[in-house]
Amino acid sequence: MTKRIITTANAPAPIGPYNQAVLVNENTLYTSGQIALNPETMELVMDTIEVETKQVMDNMKAVLQAADMNFENVIKTSIFISDMNNFSKINAVYGEYFNEATAPARETVEVACLPKNVNVEISMVAIK
To answer: Residue 89 above 90 pLDDT?
Structure first.
């Protein structure tokens, strides 16, 4: 097994003992969860739930690109949200990044609290 750490300045730097993503055997990417941190300022972008979700997905896009992948490579996503009442708004923004016919498997879970008290965190698994 080979393991390569994926990092990019185009997504927020880790705020703990983890990496943005790990590429295994040069074909399977496991991403850490992304929240709505602006990678340039490391400030949260939380104007609305839609703006927050877009920042999360743009951060994820940067991580995928650092591994020479895109959203078409994603096979599984995990979405953690602080309030299930925001699901439809989060889902609408999330859906803009995928082709519905080839969208990945996914779970969406409401949790009690997320890092920095954000409203949404998303992680992904992708393959080449």
So the answer is: yes
Q: Tens of pLDDT along 44-85?
A: 999 999 999 999 999 999 999 999 999 999 999 999 999 999
Reduced 3-state DSSP string for 74-92: EEEEEEEECCHHHHHHHHH
User: Token pair 């990678």 is at which residue?
Assistant: 39
Q: What pLDDT digit, counting tens, does each position of 11-23 carry?
A: 999 988 999 999 9
Domain of residue 105: give its range.
Answer: 3-127
DSSP string, 17-53: S--SEEEETTTEEEEPPB-SB-TTT--B--SSHHHHH
Which are the contacts of 83, defined by CB distance < 8 A and separation ≥ 6?
110, 119
Cα separations in angstroms, 30 against 4, 21, 111: 11, 6, 21
Q: What angle do CA 124, 106, 93 make, to 5 degrees?
A: 80
The residue type at 108: T
The CATH number that applies at residue 58 is: 3.30.1330.40
Structural domain count of the chain: 1
